[in-house]
Amino acid sequence: MATATAYAPRPTEAESVAPVPAVRADIIYTVTDGQRHKAFIPPQGTNAETRRTHPDRPVTVSIRDGRPEAADFHLDRSGFAFRAVPATDIDFHDPAQVERDYYPQLEALLKAETGASRVRIFDHTVRVTGGGADQTNPTRLPVHRAHVDYTEKSGPARVRDLMGEEAENLLSRRVAEINVWRPITGPVLASPLAVAEADSLRPEHLIPTDLVFEDRVGEIYEFAHDPAHRWVYFPEMTRDEVLLLKSYDSATDGRARFTPHTAFAHPDTPADAPARQSIEVRAFLFFD
User: Number of folded domains in the chain?
Assistant: First the structure.
């Protein structure tokens, strides 16, 4: 039986001694209407918007600057961690080079960060907004909606898809899914990434949503608004910085399990801001 682990709550903005730099911006939540929600994902490279069966619910919230507190965020409490990880000479628009040269770097990083005995990197997505990027290889648009990539159901299901006969043995122990998000160019001025501290969530605000691709149907969580959510971003991230985002954890001992994230429209984005280009790599982590 898992032993409960205590993760001390972070101080609220009101409890902090010094003012916390923040911006006011819209986070797009979803509605709780009692219906099963579906999101239809266009093929990569089309730059088409995702079609949904349910309306947006934009809510203006405070999104605080995480840089002054960067060292305090932890994957098992906050659900994310910010790290300076210099980028080597990799063309992130070249899928073959990313798999050959970048995946092994991230496997080593994730093992060092988490103590996982095994890491299985299984895909990546390049996202571009605003034009001006190399479109030789397929990209997608940033997602402007609060979501988590996996759920209580789809996390284990994806492990079974990927790991075949090993899956049940691996799922008998702790499994986690972590995304590694990095700017391809920087500093990021347009559509920066915001993350909500996982310990500010309540389970009843998780909304299972079908993610409908051309060849399969997955499931994600979207979110109902709660004033208790604590949103954070890291201004002007560069190519040499990454965010680790936990999208699923099988452990139920008090640690973070699901971390909402979304691109957002920063109110101070310059009119001539360059395109936001980013890469997110997804990995399952297995623990002994």
Answer: 1
Find all residues with CB under 8 Å of 182, minimum gap 6, and list them. Answer: 85, 87, 92, 239, 241, 242, 243, 278, 279, 280
CB-based contact 192:118 (threshold 8 Å): no
In this predicted model, what pLDDT tens digit does every residue of 26-77 receive, in sequence order? 999 998 888 889 988 877 666 667 788 888 899 999 999 999 999 999 999 9
Q: Write the CA distances from 261 to 213, 270, 288, integer angstroms.
A: 20, 23, 28
Does the reported pTM lie above 0.85? yes
In a domain, 280, yes or no: yes
What is the spatial distance between Cα 86 and Cα 65, in angstroms, rounded to a whole number? 21
Residues listed for the chain: 288
Query: What per-residue confidence (pLDDT) applies to 49?
Result: 74
CATH of the domain at 188: 2.60.120
Residue 108 lies in a domain: yes
Q: Residue 55: what pLDDT?
A: 84
Q: Look at residue 5 in the predicted model and tell me its pLDDT.
A: 42
Q: Which residues of 247-283 are buried (b: 16+ CB within 10 A; e: fewer)?
A: bbbbbeeebbbbbbbbbbebeebeeebbbbbbbbbbb
Looking at residue 131, what is its pLDDT? 52
The candidate with the shortest Cα–Cα distance to 260, out of 191, 184, 206, is: 206
Q: Is the model's pLDDT at 176 over the cut of 60? A: yes
Q: Is residue 18, in this structure, part of any structural domain at all?
A: no
**Domain region containing 159:** 23-65+78-286
* Residue linked to tokens 């309540």: 202
Establish if 12 belongs to a structural domain.
Answer: no
How far, rounded to the nearest angstrom, does the alpha carbon of residue 81 sit from its chain's CA centroid? 11
Strands 51-52 and 37-40: antiparallel
Confidence of residue 136 (pLDDT cuts 50, 70, 90): low
